[in-house]
Design a protein that fits this description.
Helix content is 47%, strand content 3%. The protein is mainly alpha-helical and 134 residues long. A hairpin with a 2-residue loop joins β1 and β2.
């Protein structure tokens, strides 16, 4: 049975993944840093991040599991640039590792990218590792 990785070990591996994927400095990778606003991630970067996370942790991440972008292209979930109630519920289900409290106030599609912080990624990977170990 593989040894459980601590939150700090997971954070350090994710820090390296983000440094490599986004060409940022290690001091920029803090738990509250937002991948899009603070670290400059673009949609193509998310694919690279997922690939690097899979490799670094030996996990499989399904398409749109970490970054459920397909929700934002569905008229049931987005109306006039805002995420609908139904869309918000889907985001809650699909992103249990994300803190939606700030997002709920505005619901702007543009703000969805800011749901993804370094800490969100750490919590996601920890949950994947726990479910794999179970």
């Amino acid at each position: 049975m593989p040894q459980q990785q601590t939150q700090q070990q997971v954070f350090e591996k994710i820090q390296q993944v983000l440094i490599d994927a986004l060409s940022v400095d290690d001091d920029e990778i803090v738990p509250e840093a937002r991948l899009v606003s603070d670290l400059g991630a673009e949609s193509i970067d998310f694919l690279d991040i997922v690939f690097r996370l899979e490799k670094a942790f030996g996990i499989k991440i399904e398409q749109s599991e970490l970054f459920p972008d397909n929700i934002l292209n569905d008229a049931r979930y987005v109306s006039d640039g805002k995420v609908t109630d139904e869309g918000l519920e889907i985001l809650r289900q699909r992103l249990p590792h994300a803190d939606l409290s700030e997002f709920e106030k505005d619901r702007s599609v543009e703000a969805v990218g800011d749901l993804f912080t370094v800490d969100t990624v750490v919590r996601f990977v920890l949950s994947k590792l726990e479910s794999q170990a179970a």
